[in-house]
Amino acid sequence: MGRLAGFKYRQVVRRLKQLGFEFDRQAAGSHEIWYNPSTERYTTIPNHPGDMPEGTVRAILRQAGITPEEFLNP
How many domains does the chain have? Predict the structure, then answer.
C-alpha cells in the first residue's frame, strides 16, 4: 500500500479545498469537476463510497498540478 492509498472522497475534497479548489460542476454519473481559479486548472473527482485506489488519487493530483508532498503535508 502506497502513501496515497486509503483516502476517501471527503478527505480528498477537504485537502483540495485547502489548496484552492472549488466545486465547478457535476459531470457524468457520480463524477465532479473541481476548479482552481488561481492556477486555472481543473480536476475530475469520482464520488464513490469507500477508499479511492492510489492510481486514482495520483491521477487527480496530476490533473490538478499538485505534488504528492503538497497533498500529504497540509
Answer: 1
Q: Is residue 72 part of a domain?
A: no
Q: What is the pTM of this model?
A: 0.92
Residue pair 58/4 in contact (Cβ under 8 Å)? The answer is yes
**CATH no. for residue 58?**
3.30.920.30
pLDDT tens-place string over residues 13-69: 999 999 999 999 999 999 999 999 999 999 999 999 999 999 999 999 999 999 999
**Cell numbers describing residue 6:** 486509503
Q: What nine digits make up the cell of 27?
A: 459531470
- Residue type present at position 58: R
